[in-house]
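Q: I'm building a small set of examples for a reading group on sequence design. Run inverse folding on the following structure and report the sequence directly after it, with nothing in between.
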């Protein structure tokens, strides 16, 4: 009984496959241009994705290594370096809760950094600190 069911099921599957194949061939013959255009478009899509992945791959950067020699030479304290990192990150120092310092103390550190980095503005100090390797 099981064998009969399997044979009958296999014959139905083969018949269904043959009918679908014939319908597919008829569809391809009636819409040949659209099918080829779609296949070419899919090919170019795949090529574009592959080429984009190859050309615009991001190269992993080395982790930031602070120049502690420049820090020691300029006499920048650890707390001043924290303030400088916050400046470089773009944080508003007066409202920064990461430092646990009063705004006047932060201003004092910033003024001290200006003198040590020979800068007149914050952007100039950040640029100089990046050149020296003090902040990323």
């Amino acid at each position: 009984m099981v064998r009969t069911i399997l044979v009958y099921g296999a014959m139905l599957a083969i018949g269904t496959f043959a009918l679908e194949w014939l319908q597919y061939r008829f569809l391809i013959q009636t819409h040949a241009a659209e099918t080829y255009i779609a296949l070419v478009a899919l090919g170019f899509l795949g090529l574009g994705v592959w080429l984009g992945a190859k050309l615009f791959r991001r190269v992993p950067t080395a982790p930031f290594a602070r120049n502690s020699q420049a820090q020691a030479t300029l006499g920048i304290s650890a707390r001043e370096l924290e303030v400088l990192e916050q400046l470089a990150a773009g944080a508003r120092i007066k409202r920064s809760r990461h430092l646990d310092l009063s705004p006047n103390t932060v201003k004092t550190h910033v003024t001290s950094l200006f003198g040590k980095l020979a800068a007149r503005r914050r952007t100039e100090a950040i640029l100089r600190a990046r050149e020296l390797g003090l902040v990323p």
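Residues 68-132 form a domain with the Arc Repressor Mutant, subunit A fold (CATH 1.10.10.10).
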